[in-house]
Amino acid sequence: MMSIQRNALRTAVRAAAQAQQQPAALAGVRYASTKSLVDAVAEVVPEKQEQLKQLKAKHADSSLGEVKVSNLLGGMRGLKIMLWEGSVLDADTGITFHGKSIPDCEKELPTAKDLGQEGKEMLPEAMLWLLLTGKVPSVEETKGLSQELAAKGTLPAYAEKVIDSFPKSMHPMTQFSAAVAALNHDSAFAAGYKKGMKKTEYWQPTLEDSISLIAKLPAVAARIYYNVFGRGDGKQAIDSSKDWIGNYSQMIGYGNSVGMTDYLRLYIAIHGDHEGGNVSAHATHLVGSALSDPFLSYSAGLLGLAGPLHGLANQEVLGFMQDMQKSVSENPSKEQITDYLWSVLKSGRVVPGYGHAVLRQPDPRFTALQRFASQRPELQSASIVQLVQKVFEVAPGVLTEHGKTKNPFPNVDAASGCVLYSYGMSEFSYYTVVFGVSRALGALPQLVWDRALGMPIERPKSMSIQALNAFLSK
Ligand SMILES: CC(=O)SCCNC(=O)CCNC(=O)[C@H](O)C(C)(C)COP(=O)(O)OP(=O)(O)OC[C@H]1O[C@@H](n2cnc3c(N)ncnc32)[C@H](O)[C@@H]1OP(=O)(O)O
Ligand SMILES: O=C([O-])CC(=O)C(=O)O
Predict the structure, then answer these.
(1) Complex ipTM, two decimals?
(2) Full-prediction pTM beyond 0.80?
(3) What is the mean pLDDT of the chain?
(4) Which domain of life is it from (predicted)?
(5) Ligand 2 centre and the CA of 34: distance in Å?
(6) Is 161 found in the same domain as 295?
């Protein structure tokens, strides 16, 4: 019965879409090639539009809490001010993706093995499907999406030239953001907007651009890796029988390492979304709210990810761990680690990989990466992986005694880079690029929902100190 209703809805949505006058750039073959995921999203769009309509009708004037001066001065911490569909972050239990925890996703999402690949971890393209539609894709649907991403993953020649023109000394994240912005040359959204597409149609080319960008991220990231560090195949060759990250791993030279390829799958699946308020997701959403296309919007998100308090922390952690090994010993004792942490804190620096703006317990993403490391003998013997575990046993106590951070526990960055390093990726400044391949999985689907739900341009009110004082003295 349910499926009959769904089919009827699907047919109605298709008919409605056909009845709309699509700009030429949006019609025909492009949609045919993205059919399965477009169909899955099209099924959900009317349901969610109706939910939003009801919410507005019933609760437009309901309060979500008061705004205090401390919120305005404290980075808007805790204010409920954004709509975000893909995931919700709980301070104690961590992230859930449409209600599913990381262990739930590990059980339910199709894995590399399901697609006939070597490896056991969940596939990031299945996470993309879940984030976009709220539904777990079947193996066949995941396979179809993998193939679609492979078919759309080749870089246009102009983008290759743009990347090749960057000096090696330019940070890989600067290169990444600039290259992603350059891809807006081919944006279906920008072309449709120019041709006067209707507001109700916005979400379709936003989805088309998002899939196109996600498909190309491995090649962009791999070309940067090759140009800067001389590693990888240098061609960004795509094998249509491989999954999305199987291809990425191959392009950057780890195709023969099942461990690294599977680690990249897990890493990229779980870094995909962390609700809306984090800097990279929020920046993407903010820029997108001006109807900048998905390439420009995600380029902005990547620039936010490049900050050391956010995504760059995984690069920082590795440097931090190695400095500790150099100045203390390769296998420092807990006492030596404690002393080292205190020396860092006393010099006014932060302990990278620890603390979080929302979380108040160890990050379940850290736990997932530690689970991976604990199942791999080759990682268990790596001194840097052992050090991550030892620091985890010591740092929460030191940070608690130090008394400043609200969360003395590790976030995901405490573990992520050390495993990349152990598998041979020794170029720290590249680590955040791997994170940037991932964050698109959450930030871009929300742009699709922003457009499908007709979300307005974001424009909060700011106040000067003088205006605040004047307001408060009334
Ligand atoms: C994927 C991610 O983005 S996860 C986060 C990655 N970033 C890091 O690991 C960098 C280290 N951590 C930090 O700098 C912080 O914990 C952040 C940026 C993640 C969160 O910042 P906030 O929400 O402001 O944290 P919090 O409210 O606990 O900060 C209170 C004080 O504790 C300090 N503090 C927070 N974390 C740490 C830490 N790991 N080491 C030392 N001091 C810390 C803050 O700098 C702040 O000091 P101040 O009052 O002198 O300004
Ligand atoms: O949620 C945050 O503020 C930071 C974070 O862990 C992420 O974006 O993955």
Answers:
(1) 0.99
(2) yes
(3) 93
(4) Eukaryota
(5) 30
(6) yes
